[in-house]
Amino acid sequence: MVPPVWTYNAIEKDGKTRTLGGYSSEIVVDQNYVLRVPPGLDPAGAAPLLCAGVTTYSPLKHFGVEKGDRVGVVGLGGLGHMAVKLASSMGAEVTVFSTSASKEDDARRLGASEFLVTKDLDPTPLANRFRLVIDAVSASHDLNPYIGMLIRDGTMVLLGAPPEAAHVSAGPLIFARRRLAGSLIGGIRETQEMLDYCGDNGITSDVEVIPITDVNEAYERTLKGDVRYRFVIDLKTLPV
C-alpha cells in the first residue's frame, strides 16, 4: 500500500489517496510551466532541485548572500544540505548546526567550514556573527539562540514548519534591528534561474535512487530521518 501522503498534490477522496500525477510516468502540462534541466545535470540528482533546490536558493538570492558572508544552516537534511551546497558555491562561509554529530563529515564535504552540534551548545561566543541563518528544521526547537547570532540587520529565515508555535523574544530583534522571515519555494522564473545556476556550477542533490517497490520502506526511513538526503524513485521500475 502506498503511504497516504507523498506529494504536495495528494488529496484524500472516498477513502483513497489521489496523487494527481505524483507517480505518473507521463503527464501533459501547460508549456508555460515546463522547466529546462541543464544537460550536464544527472536527472536523479536534479529532480529534488525543483523542491529543495529552489526552496533554499530563493532566500539566499532574496537576501543577497555574497562572497565572504557568514551563513548559518540549522538542520542538515533534504533542505539543509542544499542550503550548504548553494551558499558555499556563492562564496559564503557556512556553519552547520545539527543534532547529529555523525553528519559532520557530510557537512564539510558539502561545503561547510564549521560544524556545531546543537546539544548543550553555548551560543554566547557566536553572538553577532551571521548575516543570514537558514533554519530548515521542521521539529519544534528554540529559535532565540540563533536570532542572537545574527549581526545587526541580519536575517533568520524559516524554511521548516514545526508543529508548534515558536516563542520569540523581542529583545534580540529590537536591539540589533534583526529580522525573522519565512520563505517557501519559488516561481517558474526563479526556479529556472536556480536550475541554470546549478547547471553552471555542477550542483545536484545528494540522492538515493530506489525502485517503486521500496517506496513504503523509504517512507518509514524518511520519518526516522534515515535518508541522505533525498529519495528519488526510478520510474522505469513503475509497472506498466
Task: Write a concise keyword list for the protein shown above.
single chain, 240 residues, alpha/beta, 6-stranded parallel beta sheet, two-stranded antiparallel sheet, 8 helices, 27% helix, disordered N terminus
Sketch the major β-sheet.
6 strands, parallel
Q: Please state the overall shape, judged from the principal axes of the Cα atoms.
A: globular
Rounded radius of gyration (Å): 19 Å
Helix-strand makeup class: alpha/beta
| Straight-line distance between termini | 17 Å
Major β-sheet strand ordering = 5-4-3-6-7-8
Helix content: 25-40%
Per DSSP E runs of 2 or more residues, the count of β-strands stands at: 10
Strand content: 15-25%
Give the ordered list of helices and strands: EEHHEHEHEEHEHEHEHE
Written description of the protein model:
It contains 8 helices and 10 strands. The strands form 3 sheets. Strands 5-4-3-6-7-8 form a 6-stranded parallel beta sheet, covered by helices on one side. A two-stranded antiparallel sheet has the order 1-2. α2 packs across α7 (188-201). The radius of gyration is 19 Å and the shape is globular. Mean pLDDT is 92; it is low at 1-8. By secondary structure, the chain is α/β, with parallel strands linked by helices. A hairpin with a 2-residue loop joins β1 (11-13) and β2 (16-18).
